[in-house]
Design goal:
α5 runs parallel beside α6. The termini are far apart. A six-stranded parallel beta sheet has the order 3-2-1-4-5-6, with helices on both faces. It has one domain: Rossmann fold. By secondary structure, it is of the alpha/beta class.
């Protein structure tokens, strides 16, 4: 059976464990932060898609990185849960999903690709209720070799792998939609930086060769949330 089409009213975004203590350790974390701060959450606002965020043992690993300014999502931030379970599908998250029977698609991004992201995919696919879309340029791990292996495993389990821009265009669906003008403006504003970051994220290049030299913002300065 073909997976359901991505449409905003039937979709949730899952932001997995982008935390302060991971910043020095995670491969290409600055690129992922830029992607999250300037792409996916902005799409959430434009398309009115709810977001569930988690942290893994925040007492030890810190809160969601402040470059991702979750409060700016307003009511679209459905929840921000701390957890010890590696999967995002805790009892609290499952209750949210159960209360929204219209949801049939999950867009997933975050870290680490081979641990919490992968186990979230396994949990969701095990329920056989959701099409799970993993953002290929929005996941990473401490070790570069883990990422393609994890992505391959997620695909084998039935997850749909796509880029942030491809998934966003699927959600917009039609250039005549009321949201397209704002979405198109976002894509144009972030085109070069997204291209630079995505190229590094998907090429396996070390982060110091590129991301530390200006991919964080058009002027090469610190990351700033655009949500």
């Amino acid at each position: 059976m073909a997976p359901p089409r991505l449409v905003p009213e039937n979709t949730l975004f899952f932001l997995c464990d982008i935390q302060t203590k991971f910043r020095p350790a995670i491969l290409r974390v600055l690129g992922i932060l830029y992607l999250l701060c300037n792409g996916i959450p902005c799409s959430s606002q434009i398309l009115s898609i709810g977001v569930i965020a988690t942290t893994q043992n925040a007492r030890a690993l810190g809160p969601v990185d402040p470059d991702i300014d979750l409060p700016l999502l307003g009511d679209l931030l459905i929840a921000n849960f701390d957890k010890t379970l590696f999967s995002m599908i805790t009892a609290d998250v499952k209750a949210i999903l159960d209360a929204r029977p219209n949801i049939n698609s999950i867009v997933l991004f975050g870290i680490e690709s081979h641990v919490c992201v992968l186990q979230t995919v396994l949990s969701l696919m095990g329920q056989q209720q959701y099409a799970v879309h993993v953002v290929a340029d929005g996941v990473s791990s401490c070790n570069a070799f883990e990422v393609p292996i994890a992505v391959q495993r997620m695909r084998q389990e039935g997850a749909i792998i796509g880029t942030s821009e491809s998934i966003a265009f699927q959600l917009v669906g039609d250039a005549s939609s009321p949201q397209f003008k704002a979405f198109s403006k976002l894509v144009k504003e972030d085109k070069e930086s997204t291209k630079q970051v995505g190229g590094v994220l998907l090429s396996g290049l070390p982060s110091h060769q590129n991301l530390s030299e200006g991919a964080g913002s058009p002027g090469g300065g610190p990351l700033k949330s655009a949500m």
